[in-house]
Write a structure and sequence with these properties.
231 residues, mainly alpha
Length: 231
Amino acid sequence: MSGGAWTDVALVVLVVLALLGWLVWVRASRLDRLHRKVGASRAVVEAQLVRRATVAAELATSGLLDPASAVVVGEAAWSALSASGVDGDVPAGLLPDDLRALLRADGAADAPPAPGAAPATDRGQVESELSAALDEVLDDPDEVAALSAEPGGDELLEALAASWYRVQLARRFHNEAVAQTQRVRRGLLVRALRLAGHAREPRTLELDDAWPAGLARPGEGAAARGGGTRG
């Protein structure tokens, strides 16, 4: 083979290698961005879940609910806050000392697990239990209207509706980001070259965030009622 032919072959090889390197760089950069997007979206979901649990705790200690409902909602809210790891950061006065003692008595809010240990409870299950507890209280439009008519009731219900709506939006956005990342991770090039490195494969957050029948959605009148999707 002549020197010119070898030069042409070498040039083709260099071009192919350059294209392959560029493709690998593009795919690795995209995967890194997706992992960062998943992390950021999960942080947003966590913040909205904490906000919803905090408002639920305020509702439980507001005196607007009957004692049995107040304990059920308060316990579910406290469990959700404990599962989020922010139980020690709940604003002072949000949960009275007697309610804190009552909820801690059954071990529901024991000390958090040691770093690196597996979580004691499933986050989705805990949040679903809070949804169920609130749904029990807010499933009757007439009862919700009565709560809203009480002093401070309308503000609490509006805050709960706003936080719940943000939970639904944030979780949907997070799960879409997770699904997109999972598709990219399954790509042949990503798997062959192990471009994901040691990063854990992200998982969707599954929980029941169905909208209570009696709670008006943000921006709707008291008579407007929303539906919800479970999952």
